[in-house]
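Need tokens for this chain, all 75 residues.
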Amino acid sequence: MCIININKMDYLQFLKRNKMHRSNRWIVKYDNNERVREVKLIFNPDEYRQMKRPRELHTQKQLIKILTKNKELCI
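Here are the structure tokens for all 75 residues:
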């Protein structure tokens, strides 16, 4: 069973329609079933990379692919 979070799907549509600044990056958090649980926008990726345990950073195109794949898994 998959519970679709409407906010995530709305954000996917938002990303497809709007071009974000090219330096912006996102991190994605997953639940135990490898489904997207949370997406966070990182405004300063260089500063974030210097943290102790930074997560993988994704571009806008990469994030769209991840959210699309997650949406397909939940259908």
